[in-house]
Description:
This protein has 258 residues and is an alpha/beta fold. The chain has a single domain (9-249), classed as TIM Barrel. Helix content is 33%, strand content 28%. The protein is built from 10 helices and 12 strands. The chain has an 8-stranded parallel β-barrel with strand order 1-4-5-6-7-10-11-12, surrounded by 6 helices.
Amino acid sequence: MIKNGPCKRIIPCLDVKDGQTVKGVNFVNLKYAGDCIELAKKYSDSGADELVFLDITATNEKRKTVVDLVQKVGKNVFIPFTVGGGISDIEDIRYILSAGADKVSINSAAVKNPEIISNCAEYFGSQCIVIAIDAKRIDNDFYVFVNAGKKNSGKKLLDWAKEVEEKGAGEILLTSMDYDGTQKGFDIEMLNVVSNAVNIPVIASGGAGADSRHFIDVFNKTKVDAALAASIFHFGTLPVNVLKKELQAAGIETRRII
């Protein structure tokens, strides 16, 4: 069942490289995590609220997102589906949406040319535009990184989060590079910096472990609207439907209950 009201969302993430789902730690040491189409269908069937598909090497390899894979995944899921990786203009977004995605995630291209946010939001609607932000601690502040976390943009996280909201983004997907893949819990400090400063939904990413307390904490201690995870879902250490029941027991309502 799908609930109405301010329900939280649980979002599995498929990081895709060479057509396969992979997962690393702190954006490096990638390892195979399963077939992306099979995983997408499993998550759709087991109660995930949404799904994110990120072609993680598209930008660095200077190519477009693998549209045929997007089409195959889209045919196997019945929940909102966001796609990112190598998206840099209106035509890219048109292709991705026509291939079956509900939203697109833009990262490096938006940092390089912030006007792409307002242009795309005006053309497709803010609800379609998710700005992904990869951030890391440097000298007691948070900075935005691009090119799959390989390059410091020089932009401060708080400034960039406010700017993307002003430009018309509908949502922010915020990944803590310090916590990514560590499974020690979400980066509460970083998430509060952003979720307290903007009025658009924020998706927490980076650090989720097999302890449902990580999700309970992020929803109780920050204003995020959703929590994203990969490893714990891919390898079955905390299945989506089990997590949903534990959240419900803790008084946290989610959009879908299976």
